[in-house]
Amino acid sequence: MRKPAECETMVHIRAEIDRLDEALVRLLAERAGYIDRAAEIKAEVDLPARIGSRVEEVVTNVRRHATAYGLPPELVEKLWRRLIDWSIAREENRLGPDSMRKDG
């Protein structure tokens, strides 16, 4: 692992980006496991896949993290809203339509 300033060639840069991409995919897969478990729990307690207050809590958290790490919070929010939508769709595939559940 090299820090950005330690990369002397594009080969170094590309290797580090590839390493990080693999780590990001691994983390997304780990996150999906929690999404799947959330769907199981929500089914047990009759909660919908989309809980608006939780969506906004997640967005607030990632905007704060983005700012702390020097990233544009608007960009990170857009990315996360897409991730959240994907996660909710994944839950809905397991739960069925939200119209049958109460809002939590």
Account of the 3D structure:
With 104 residues, the chain is an all-alpha fold. The protein has a single domain (4-100), classed as Chorismate Mutase Domain, subunit A. The protein has helices at 10-45, 52-68, 73-95. Keywords: Isomerase. This is chorismate mutase.
From the 3D structure, determine the CATH topology: Chorismate Mutase Domain, subunit A
Unreliable runs, pLDDT <50, ≥5 residues?
Answer: none
Major beta sheet, specifics? Answer: none
Secondary-structure arrangement, i.e. CATH architecture? Up-down Bundle
As for the number of domains, it is: 1
Portion of residues within helices: over 70%
Number of helices: 3
DSSP strand count: 0
Mean pLDDT: 93
Per CATH, the class reads: Mainly Alpha
What brief labels describe this structure?
chorismate mutase; Chorismate_mutase-related; EC 5.4.99.5; Chorismate Mutase Domain, subunit A; 104 residues; chorismate mutase activity; Chorismate_II_sf; mainly alpha
SSE map:
Elements: H1 10-45, H2 52-68, H3 73-95
Please give a quick description of this structure.
The chain is mainly alpha-helical and 104 residues long. The chain has a single domain, classed as Chorismate mutase (Chorismate Mutase Domain, subunit A, Up-down Bundle), CATH 1.20.59.10. It has helices at 10-45, 52-68, 73-95.
